Amino acid sequence: MKQQPSVETRSLSASRAEMSEILMPNDTNNLGRALGGRILEWMDVCGAIAGRRYAEGQVVTASMDHVDFLAPIDVGDVVTVEAYVFDTGRTSMDIKVDVTAERPSEGKKRATITSFFTFVALDEDETPVPVPKLVCESDEERELRDSALRKREEHRAALAESNA
């Protein structure tokens, strides 16, 4: 039996997901900084949560754009991963995933990683199924979508330029 979305459209806010972790010693390298693979795992999980909320069903990771580690994440930092759907295809969802790190005693958050994932919605037979079309119901949602579309395009252009 095929999974069908309960509505034909869904808002960006319906997909929003956030998760936080404390970076523990087991998640760090010999410098006491985050292992990249651990952070990528958290990003993939948060992106999948956003995709599952949006599609109201199972999703799988199809791709992840280039990742730049912009700032270190140190042992003891609170790491927050945020994700939301900003564009859709027929069966796919593009999801922006941002990571910030915070040292609560200092009261400062810093951006550490941004990437763009693509997830595909699946039915119970693991066959791709259509996803609702994205609608932005507020100025904030339109701004998030437009910013993500612009940043992904800039990101891809910079990557293409560096590979030329």
Q: Can you walk through the features of this model?
A:
This is Acyl-CoA thioester hydrolase. GO terms for molecular function: long-chain fatty acyl-CoA hydrolase activity. One of its GO terms (cellular component) is cytosol. The chain is α+β, with helices and mostly antiparallel strands. The chain has a single domain, classed as Hotdog Thioesterase (Thiol Ester Dehydrase, Chain A, Roll), CATH 3.10.129.10. The protein has helices at 36-55, 139-163, and strands spanning 9-11, 17-22, 58-64, 78-88, 92-103, 108-122, 133-135. The strands form two sheets. The chain has a five-stranded antiparallel sheet with strand order 2-4-5-6-3. A two-stranded parallel sheet has the order 1-7. β5 and β6 (108-122) form a beta hairpin. The radius of gyration is 17 Å and the shape is globular. 29% of the residues are buried. The mean pLDDT is 93.
Secondary structure layout:
Layout: E1 9-11, E2 17-22, H1 36-55, E3 58-64, E4 78-88, E5 92-103, E6 108-122, E7 133-135, H2 139-163
Parallel strand pairs: 1-7
Antiparallel strand pairs: 2-4, 3-6, 4-5, 5-6
GO biological process, one term: fatty acid catabolic process
Keywords: Hydrolase
Domain HotDog ACOT-type: 13-125
List keywords for this structure.
single chain; 164 residues; alpha+beta; Thiol Ester Dehydrase, Chain A; 5-stranded antiparallel beta sheet; two-stranded parallel sheet; 2 helices; 7 strands; 35% strand; HOTDOG_ACOT; HotDog_dom_sf; long-chain fatty acyl-CoA hydrolase activity; hydrolase
